[in-house]
Amino acid sequence: MSDAIARLNAALEGRYSVERQLGEGGMAIVYLARDEKHNRRVALKVLKPELAALVGGERFLSEIETTASLQHPHILPLFDSGQAAGFLFYVMPYVEGESLREKLDRERQLPVDEAVGIARNVAEALDYAHRHGVIHRDVKPANILLQDGKPVVSDFGIALAVTAGGAGRLTETGLSLGTPHYMSPEQATGDLSVGGASDIYALACVLYEMLVGEPPYTGSTPQAVLGKTIQARPVSVTEVRRTVPVHIDAVIRRGLEKVPADRFASAQAFSRALGDTGFRHGEAATSTAVPGAVRPWNRMTVAFASLAALFAGVASRSLLRPEAAAPPAPIRRFELALPEGGQVRGNTNQTLALTPGGEAVIVNVATGPANGQLFARSLGSLEMVPIRGTENVGSFIVSPDGAWVAMNDPTSETFIKVPVAGGPSTTIAATPGSSGGFRGASWGDAGFIVYAVGAHLGLMRVRDVGGVPDTLTVAADGETHSDPRVLPGGETVLFTVVPTEGEPEVAALSVATGAYELLAQGEDPDYVEGGFLLFRRGNALWAAALDATARTLTSEPVPVVEGTRAGRFYAVSRDGTLVYLTGGAAAIEGARLAVVRLDGSRSLLPLAPRDIEQVVWSPDGRSVAYVSEDQIFTYDVVLNATPRQITFEGINSRPVFSPDGARLGFSSARPGTDGTDLFVKDLESDAPPASLVRLEADQFMSQWPADTLLAFERGQGGRRDLWLLDISDPESPEARPYLTSEADLQRITVSPDGRLVAYESDESGRDEVYLRGFPSPGAQTMVSRGGGSIPMWSPDGGTLYYFNGPGNPVVAARLRIGPVPVVLSLDTLSAVVGPTREPFPGALHPDGDRFVFGDAEEDPTPEQTTGTAPEGLVLVQNFVEELRRLVGN
Fold it and tell me: Is CATH 2.120.10.30 what the domain over 593-866 is classified as, yes or no?
C-alpha cells in the first residue's frame, strides 16, 4: 500500500476505505474506495496538493456544493465532498466500464451513429446543467464515462470550483484548467468568465475526434494547440471521412466557430441540429483560404503565380531574340531569416528543399524539441509561411512540379503527400516499421518515388499516385543504402552506401539492371543539371563532373562550399540554386557544471571550468561523476572537494553509479585491447578498475538498474543492440541480448519498478524514444514525436524525460502504466539543456527535480569559445556558374 493511500485511509477512517489508485488527471488523483456507511464502491477524487494549497478548502467546497443538486441520467452525481488532514476530496459513483478516452485510444474512430448518439446524450446533460447555472468547463473524452454503453458526464462544476477557489491565482502559478485540445478560443486566451458556448465548443471537438480519430487541432505542445485554436481553421470532417453526413459536418463547424455568439444558442439546439438532416451552416469548410481573406497561403500562392508568369515571360522573350552568346549569370548570395524563434530541425535526412526551379525554399523549422513544421518562402516574398498538415514532420521531399511535399506519417506508418498550398493528405504507400520517418527519399520526374526505410535495408520504389513498392537494391549484411536522388529521366539513382567498416561512399545505380558503381567517398549526394555531382564530406560540400549515362565521374572531386553544417543540411535545385545551413553550436574549451531545475532555473556549481561531459548524479545526490579528456572523475558537490580521478589510462566513457553508490561502472578502450569493454571501479578501494566482460564488438555502459544487473549497448559501425549483464556471480558474469534490431539502439534504461524499458532507436530515420516491457521486450510503444533521445525516468516511474539536442527544452512524457503503456501527454518544460552539451543518462537528480551537465560559463570569453558562426540559412543563385568555374565541366 502506498504512503498516500495509507494517509488517506487514516484521514477518512470510518467514512471511506481506499483500495487502490485508478488514475490521475490534470486536477485530481482518482482512487477506488468503499463507502463504509452505504457499503458501495465509489470513485474518490483527491485534488492534487499544489492545487489544493492554491485553492483553499472553504471556497472550493462551497462552490462544489452547487453541483450536488444536478440530477440527470447522463450526469454522474456528486455523492460527497470534504476536507481531511490536508486532503481536498470529492466522491462520485464508481462506474464499471471505460471512459470515452479509453474507447477512442482502442478504436480511434467510432461508427457515425454511435458517435452522434453519444454527442446527443452529452448535449442533453450539458443543456440541463446550463439551465441550472452550472458550466462544466472541462468537457473531454476522459470525463465522459460509458455505463452500459450510455454516456455519463463526470466532474461537473469541478473546474468552476477550482477557478473560484483559486481566486485568480492560477495564472500566476502557471497552473491552467482545461485540456488544450478541447478548450474554446475564449478559454485559450485566458478568459475565466466563460459560458455554455464554451462547453458546446468542447463537445464539438469531442464529436470531431470520435468521427475523425483526432481532435480538430493537434500539435506537439499545448502552446501549439492553443495557437491553432485561436487562429487556425479545422479540416472539414467530410474531407477526412466521406461517410459522415453533410449536416453532421455543418453542426460541428458551427460548434467550432471562434466567436461564442456564432455557435449554437444552447446545447439543446446543438442536439436538435444533429437530428436535422437539412441543417446547413455557412460554406462547407475546405482546405483552401477563405474567399477574400488575405491569409499567408493566399500570399504564397500569389507569389508562386507571379513568379511563374515572370519566368514564362522571360522564356517567351528569349525565343524572339536572335541567338547570341549570353554572358554568365551573376552568382548571388543571400541570407534567409527563419520564423522568429525557429531553428532548422536537426536529426532528419532532408531538412531543406527547393522547388525544382528554385522559386521557393522549404525548411523544416523546429520551434521546440517535440515540434517541427515545414515553412516555405517564395523568393518573391519576405515571409516564411507554414505548410498546413506538415506538423511534426521529419524528413520530406518535394514533387518535380513543386506542388506537393511527401513525408512519412509516424502514427499510421504510411508514406503520404500533402499539397504545398494546403489540403488533405493522400496515402502513397505503407511503410511498416518506419514509425516516423525514412532514411531519405527522392521524387523523380517519371512518376516514381525512391526511398529507404529503416536501417540496413535497400532502396524501394513506388508510384507517386500510390501502389505496391518494389525493391531496387538489397544492402549487404551490415551495410546501409540511404539518401537516394533520382536523376532526370528516372534511369539513374544516386545514393549513399555506408559499409560495415570504412567511410560512406556515393554510388550511382542503374534502375534497369540493379547494378551500381561507387563514385567517391562522401554522402548525401545530389545532382545539378549540366552534369554535376554534389555531395558532402564533413562540414564541406564537394562536387565533380558526372557522366550520368555512363554513371562515372569525369573529373576529380573538389570542395566547393566550406562551413556547412554536417548532416543533410543543404538542398540544390536542378538548375543550380543552392541553399545550405551554416553555423551551429560552438565548442566550449572550458565548461562548468550546470544544474538546471524543471522550472528552468539554472545555477553553476563551483568546480573550475574544464572539459566536462557525460555528467551523472550519484544515487544519494551528493556527488557526480563525469568524463574529462577521456578520463573519469568524481566530484563531491556538497563539500566542493577536489575532483578525484578514477581512471588513468585508455579512452573512458559512460560512467554509471551502482545502486548503492559504492561502485562506478564505465566503458573503456584500453591499450593492447581490441575495442571498448565494460569495467567497474570500487570507489571505496584503491584497487584499479576491473574488467567486467569482454565480448566481440564494442560495449557501452548505459545503466546499473539493480545490484546484480547492468544494461549496456553492444555493436560496431554505428549500429548497436541492447544487452543485459548479470553479475550475481562476479567470477562468471552472464551477458544476454535484451533487444536486437537492424536499427541503431542506444541508452537502454529500466524503469524504477522494473516493468518497462525506455531506449533510443533510429529505426524511423531519426532518433526517437520508445518503450518496451521488462524483462521480456514485448510490444513497442513510441514516446517521442519529431525526434527524441536520452530517456530518463522520474523517481516514481510515471514520467519519462527526454531531449532533442543541445539548446532545446526538456520534454516530459506523462505515462499511464498498464499491460500496454500509454503516453498521456508530451509537455515541454521550462528546463533547457545547454547550447553546447547534451545531458547524459543519469543526469537527472535522484529527487527528480533537476539535471546536471557540463556547460559553458554564463559569459564565455572569446578564448573559451571556438567553432563556427551562429546558425543561418544561405541561398546561392546561379550556383551552377560556380560549379563550372571550380569543377571545369
Answer: yes
